[in-house]
Design a protein that fits this description.
single chain; NAD; 394 residues; 14 helices; Dehydroquinate synthase-like, alpha domain; 3-stranded mixed β-sheet; Rossmann fold; alpha/beta; ADH_Fe_C
Length: 394
Amino acid sequence: MPELGTLRLPDRVHFGYDAREQLPEIVRVYGRRVLAVVDPFLTGTPYLAAAVGGLEAAGVQVRVYSDVTPELPVDTLDAAGAVAREYGPDVIVAIGGGSALDAAKLIALLAAYGGPLNSYYGENLVPGPVVPIVALPTTAGTGSEVTPVAVVSDPDRELKVGISSPFLVPAAAIVDPELTLGSPATVTAYSGIDALVHAVESYTARAFDPGWAAPLPVFTGRNALIEPIALQAARHLGPWLEVAVASPGDRRARSEVARGSLLGGIAFGSTGTHLCHALQYPIGALTKTPHGLGTGLMLPYVLDAVRPAVPDRVAALGEALGAPDGPIARVVEINRAIGVPATLAEIGLGRDQLPRIADLALGAQRLLAIAPIEPTREALLDILERAHDGALTV
């Protein structure tokens, strides 16, 4: 198959210390009436006061919405969407971690088209452009500031549910490492290792034949335009994630990890992710553990499983991580250094639960389709059993 590529990105992406000072200039492109969707922990902080003050000084009206609930229960978002429709913003500014950024995407959708939110579950069901979003992440990991997906919790569903559409890609992303300096060590660790998973799964994605005459899926698999970006993400994260966790005030480390996270988001926003994510959703639901903990825990076992299918790609990732002779061992080393558990047994899962996890993961067909191996039940169960026992072949 000839090399193919797709890019779906914000109109503007700014990265670097003090980049947040561009916020008023960017917002004024889209209008003068702002709904700021922010993490609750930001209320009363100098960062939020400075952001709102800068917008108001530029003649922009700002309403702050901080009722963002962790895990994003769908009913809270429907309520937030009603608030947004009543307010009628020209632009939504999202400031916070992945939950706040995902919430802003879905509020922008509901402000434009109304609810209920469950009518948009799945891929390519957003009818058109949403209210423009300017995203400022305060954690380095999800990459949500540049991706076309948001994830919610629905009590009627056993697992989290995704809404995916190119229309959910923010209009602008401002990644200022200064905003990540206050992240706790565990947040830095779990979000950072998830960013590395994004890079790895993007680079090892299955190649698709997109069929250019038909509507494209949101995630298009192996991508010639993305491959160097995924490897560059790994180059930033590999040497620096451990430093950022151990020395949270290290500005160089924070910058490197934030850049790796941004590049990882750009990478998987076009290609998609695969086995680590498909398996984490049921693992996280059963253990109530953070998303990044689960994807990071699974990463060495998934790499081990896909290595026979894509040996050259795993080797290239090893080069990017500075471990050409042992990329999987290097991932294990990073996980150990930042506090990611080594096995599923360590997070309380019994071997008898693994078949159920495999069955639930089989429902994530969008993710499984991107895997470079055939994601049969037997293959998934083998990965899970190895992850439970800590059994790597290398």
